[in-house]
């Protein structure tokens, strides 16, 4: 339930999400430092009416205020490049699942396990239990094992959809007619909620998805029931 104390990023359920959550902290420190320096300089120049000819026509000071922003951008860009590299698809995925976006529900295929297939629809509020979340719960959660590299193949059967789970830092476009892919790893058990983040039609906001992270043993038991 949303409260004033929960107005923040979701707790990370994957190593990549945790890295994304910590990335804004040093960036904000740099931005605050720049804001203080620029604000002090403007205050000193405008309010005190101080003018120095070296500030207007000085090669040395021009070199400084050209080099410092370049160094700052490099300081911010290097961690960004590292995160972009980590977003690349992994070749070590142990499980591959397919998800197909439809108007307006998701279909899943576990092709590695004897073609286990099922659809997931949003649970109506009239059928929700006390611990359920309106507009987020589904009738068939997608069960996956934690601490396992998972490849997900997404596509759409009609219009453009987007498979997004904020806790996993995943947002994978599902284009019609061809597969798009991404990878993720869940490092703790739990229920992780997401939604279609592409405006796909009249019932776009009623197209949630739920990922249930379990141990390998519970995952195998769930598979045996679905076969």
UniProtKB/TrEMBL annotation:
Transmembrane segments: 28-51, 63-87
Main location: mitochondrion
Superkingdom of the source species: Eukaryota
InterPro entries: CcO_II, CcO_II-like_C, CcO_II_C, Copper_CuA, Cupredoxin, Cyt_c_oxidase_su2_TM_dom, Cyt_c_oxidase_su2_TM_sf
GO term, biological process aspect, one: ATP synthesis coupled electron transport
Domain Cytochrome oxidase subunit II copper A binding residues, every copy: 92-225
Membrane-related topology note: Multi-pass membrane protein
Gene Ontology CC entries for this record: mitochondrial inner membrane
Cofactors named for this entry: Cu cation
Molecular function terms, GO-annotated: copper ion binding; cytochrome-c oxidase activity
Catalytic activity, as annotated: 4 Fe(II)-[cytochrome c] + O2 + 8 H(+)(in) = 4 Fe(III)-[cytochrome c] + 2 H2O + 4 H(+)(out)
Ranges of residues in domain Cytochrome oxidase subunit II transmembrane region profile: 1-91
Pfam families linked to this entry: COX2 (PF00116), COX2_TM (PF02790)
Subcellular location: Mitochondrion inner membrane
Cofactor annotation remark: Binds a copper A center.
Key words of the record: Copper, Electron transport, Magnesium, Membrane, Metal-binding, Mitochondrion, Mitochondrion inner membrane, Respiratory chain, Translocase, Transmembrane, Transmembrane helix, Transport
Function per UniProt: Component of the cytochrome c oxidase, the last enzyme in the mitochondrial electron transport chain which drives oxidative phosphorylation. The respiratory chain contains 3 multisubunit complexes succinate dehydrogenase (complex II, CII), ubiquinol-cytochrome c oxidoreductase (cytochrome b-c1 complex, complex III, CIII) and cytochrome c oxidase (complex IV, CIV), that cooperate to transfer electrons derived from NADH and succinate to molecular oxygen, creating an electrochemical gradient over the inner membrane that drives transmembrane transport and the ATP synthase.
Subunit structure: Component of the cytochrome c oxidase (complex IV, CIV), a multisubunit enzyme composed of a catalytic core of 3 subunits and several supernumerary subunits. The complex exists as a monomer or a dimer and forms supercomplexes (SCs) in the inner mitochondrial membrane with ubiquinol-cytochrome c oxidoreductase (cytochrome b-c1 complex, complex III, CIII).
Family classification: Belongs to the cytochrome c oxidase subunit 2 family.
Name this protein carries in UniProt: Cytochrome c oxidase subunit 2
Annotated source species: Ceracris fasciata fasciata
Top-level taxonomy: Eukaryota, Metazoa, Ecdysozoa, Arthropoda, Hexapoda
């Amino acid at each position: 339930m949303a409260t004033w104390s929960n107005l923040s990023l979701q707790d990370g359920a994957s190593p990549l999400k945790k890295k994304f959550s910590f990335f804004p902290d040093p960036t904000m420190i740099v931005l605050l430092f720049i804001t203080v320096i620029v604000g002090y300089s403007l205050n000193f120049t405008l309010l005190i009416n101080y003018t120095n000819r070296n500030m207007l026509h000085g090669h040395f000071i021009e070199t400084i205020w050209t080099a410092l922003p370049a160094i700052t951008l490099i300081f911010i860009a290097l961690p960004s490049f590292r995160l972009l590299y980590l977003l690349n698809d992994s070749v070590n995925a142990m499980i591959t699942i397919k998800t197909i976006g439809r108007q307006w529900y998701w279909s899943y295929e576990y092709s590695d396990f004897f073609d286990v297939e099922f659809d997931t629809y949003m649970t109506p509020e009239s059928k929700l239990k006390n611990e359920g979340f309106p507009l987020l719960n589904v009738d068939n959660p997608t069960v996956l094992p934690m601490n396992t590299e998972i490849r997900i193949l997404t596509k759409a059967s009609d219009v453009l959809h987007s498979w997004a789970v904020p806790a996993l830092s995943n947002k994978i476009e599902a284009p019609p007619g061809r597969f798009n892919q991404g990878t993720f790893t869940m490092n703790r058990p739990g229920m992780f909620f997401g939604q279609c983040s592409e405006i796909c039609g009249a019932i776009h906001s009623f197209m949630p998805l739920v990922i249930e992270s379990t141990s390998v043993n519970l995952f195998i038991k769930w598979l045996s029931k679905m076969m």
